Amino acid sequence: MTEYTPEQIDNLTSAITKLAEAKDRAYAEGRTPDAKTVEGTKAVADDLAKASQEQDEANRKAVKAQIDEQVKAALVELRSPSMAAAIGMGKADVKATRNLQLVIDAHPFLAKAYGSDYVAGDLIRSIGLMRSSDAEEQAFGKATLRALGVQRGDVPTGSSSYTMFDVVEAPGGVGGAETIKATLGATGATGGFVLPNNLVDTLAKPKTMAAIYTDLVTVRNGVNVRGVDQPFRTGAPARAQFQDWGQTKENVNEAYGSYTANLGTIARVYDIGKQYLRFSQGSAEEDVLDELGKAFRLGENFYIIAGAGTGSVGSGDPTTGVYTALNARPGFKTAFGSASVTTVAGSFASACATAMQNMAGNNRAPTAIVVDHITYFTSIREGADAAGFWVNPAGGPTGFQVLPNGQLHYWGVPVFWDSNLGTNATTKILIAAQWDAFKLYRGMEFRVDSSDQAGTRWDTNLVGYRGEEEIGFHAGTGVETGAAFLVTAVIP
After folding, report:
1. What is the C-alpha separation between 420 and 371, in angstroms, rounded?
2. What is the spatial distance between Cα 165 and Cα 182, in angstroms, rounded to a whole number?
3. Among residues 308, 314, 358, 455, which one has the fewest Cβ atoms lying within 10 Å of its Cβ?
4. Bridge partners for 218 per DSSP
């Protein structure tokens, strides 16, 4: 490996400067530099880069050697005494030993921290002397630490300094025993300011209701229009009848109705401080996106069952939910009755059978039964003392079955609970439906846009996260074709 002297490096630097000037003159005169100038520039640049690399390597070796020497010097007084010293060579003079270290330069960091007169090894050696059983060595170590400014028994009010070591004198003043205690960091003044912040566990949130309806109904994505017309036959087809020869045959007309699922926008905005976003290292943004995702899932779920709109555009909520449509049509709902829940006639099983019976009259079978949460758990504890619980996990005469995952079924039809229902504590409801007959239309689907410019957000250091989604839902068509039935007053 070629070693470059400082003179050679200077010559290389001068040469590449001259070659660069020659190239610049050529370009200024509108001509291409000759090949020798270009090749010479590359060759000199390569030599200069190699010389610089070797110089950096030499500097690193020199620094490492200096640090090794200082560590050795610092450990001189911390080694166990030799057998010769223990027998009778006498105790070393710590002051003289200290003077021997003057030939070694202090590390630049320690020299800058404790002053240009800092001697290599003073800090570690003095700490070791403080633990010595010899009073003279203790005094020397204590004096050295005090001179360095790293030993203080108290912190003045308002000082930003913190104690590295505390020296506590025993009662009796001078000559008493002294002990050293480490800084505890229990307060800001004793090191708390330099401790890392507390660890933060996963954010705990209130539990949201399971969104069941988007998994039950038919979902149509990518419907980028203002609305969807949903035509239906107003009556079920009737059977054909016998007609005698030569008689006028039966002539019937078909009648149609239609509901429109107009798409409207559901939206929400969260504003988050920029400092909070930076310091939370992504947690704040993750939480906002999670909140928005759940909000829109719950929004879809609510409007499918309880949307109270008339279906018209510009009226706020354009959706008409399944419960809203059923409750407005007397032909598709019934009150259960007043029989006691301790009787078979007043049991939850009878209420389920009532809904399924009415759907069967429209040639429909439910794919799921949904009740409010109060009705659901009240039904589980219904029964009679003689017969036991009507909802029997083992599958009893009432037709209930509970799967290993806890899912309740009635004659093979799953039963779900929904806290959006049953807001009236005296009127509990049950909805049996062929849920795939109802359709949820999504437009551009759920999306999140963010901005720190809109409004006054730039002035106030805020970032806004806006979630939006277009949805359309109208349960009228499914109800009119007998796909659902409502039972009220299921329990007293």
Report:
1. 10
2. 6
3. 314
4. 439
